[in-house]
Amino acid sequence: MGPFVPDLISSEMNLVVALLIGIGFGFVLEQAGFSSSRRLAGLFYGYDFTVLRVFFSAAITAMIGIMLLGYAGLLDTEAIYVNPLWLWPAVVGGAIMGVGFILGGYCPGTSICAAAIGKIDALFFIGGIFGGVFVFAEMFPSWEGFHFSSALGPQRVYDSLAMSAGVFAFVLIAIALVAFFVTAIIEKRTNPNAPSRAFRPKPHALAALAVLLMGALLITLPDRKSRIIAAVTVPEYAATHEVQRMSGDELAFRIMDGATNMQIVDVRSADEFKQFALPRAVNVGTRDLFAKEWQKLFAQRHVTKVIVANDDKDAATAYHVLRKIGYDNLAVLDGGLTQFKREILENDPPATTAGRHAADVQEFRAQAGPMIRKMIEAERNKPAPVEKKAKKVAGGC
Fold it and tell me: Phi first, then psi: what are they for 80, rounded to 5°?
């Protein structure tokens, strides 16, 4: 699963791809008329709203594409970098950029586009940008405190508004369509040569209706993780899909044996994992099973991934999720950690000693319990490993 670029091409080739995309983006901007400061400034004076239409359309297209790719499992949306928000510095910075946009007729991206075709005013604008960057850097100690104030971390608008991503997408599409309609009226009244005068009402109305219907579809579109987890947790699914199981005795034997072809995957909460964990276990929540950082571990076909939880049910859910997203060589700890603790670690109640096999089991558990408890204690006293997170893909305008 995506994102598309990481792991498919090298970091160096990333830069080459980024350069080619940048050239293509600049070409599109120029063809759309964004190399003209007059057209860009028309947004603020009400005679040309091309900028609003293009950027709103681009945002909606990207939003719909990301949601559909995420639903199809082709894009890990949680691997996308979200810029941290410093609220008041962002407000002040946005105001400064807005004033610069009105005065100069460009934003940073469009100024590069215009300079590329030889616009003199764009070259002066870029000179102003570098001058501003120089002043900002030289005087940074003076406003460093404000620069790092009101830090809110990575923020998604729909989370801040306490709504689902689908509802937010629909609302944004509706706002965009209303904005297109209203600005077209304003444009026609203020500009006899307005681009919107050439618009044909019927095709535009049909396109608006289609996009609005797509927005309505997004409301009902669950993200891929929620969809898969919901599908495997219904009783009918569990009844018709068996899981491979590993007994507590076998798991205990393989732990003591130091088996390298086995990996224990604990799907309980992080707090429960901190309080008690089997030796060499990794803690991965059920929703995190989809994450890119665990792909390498789960993709090892010669390694049996033993899913453990407090009981069979949670472990079986994780098992089915992993099977759904394409991993194999999995097993669930039979009876869960609760039974494992009782039978192996505490040996309570003791296994019946009736018969030779039962006596052997009892003898094994009597030896395994203390040994595994020592291994757990030794692992607990180890320094905490440095947490490694998958690098997110940064970007932005």
Answer: -80, 130
What is the per-residue pLDDT for 7?
A: 59
Query: pTM of whole model > 0.85?
Result: no
Question: Which strands, in side-by-side order, build the sheet including 245-246?
Answer: 245-246, 330-333, 304-308, 262-266, 282-283
Contact indicator for 248, 339 with CB cutoff of 8 Å: yes
Residue with tokens 């603020």: 44
Q: DSSP assignment, residue 306?
A: E
The predicted-structure confidence for 35-88, as pLDDT tens digits, reads as follows 888 888 888 888 889 888 888 898 999 999 988 888 887 777 777 788 889 999
Using an 8 Å Cβ cutoff, are 347 and 365 in contact? yes
Buried b (16+ CB within 10 A) or exposed e, 288-327: ebbbbebbeebeeeeebbbbbbbebebbbbbbbbbebbeb
Residue partners of 59: CB distance under 8 A and separation at least 6: 172, 176
The DSSP-derived string for 32-43 is: TTTT-HHHHHHH
Task: Tell me the one-letter amino acid at 45.
Answer: Y
Tell me the pLDDT tens digit for each residue of 214-239. Answer: 999 888 887 778 888 888 888 888 88
